[in-house]
Amino acid sequence: MFEGWLIQVTKGNPAEGEQDVALYASWEPKEDAAVLLVIKTFNLAEEDIASMVIDLPKEVMEKLGLKPGEAGPYSEDVVAG
What we know:
The protein is α+β, with helices and mostly antiparallel strands.
């Protein structure tokens, strides 16, 4: 059973040659709330684009050191380790 979401945040304008993509885990079961938690936690700008990628189980959240209601950077190395 999933507990949260993997959120992709895209910053910058690719038309101007600059774009940065970052992944975050959000331990919030509701989709909209998960995205809002990442936006609030990391002070994202209006022009930043946050979108859900996949749902994440409790075990992944715990490996990332998160608690319910928290968001943090997603690291494949931590999850796989």
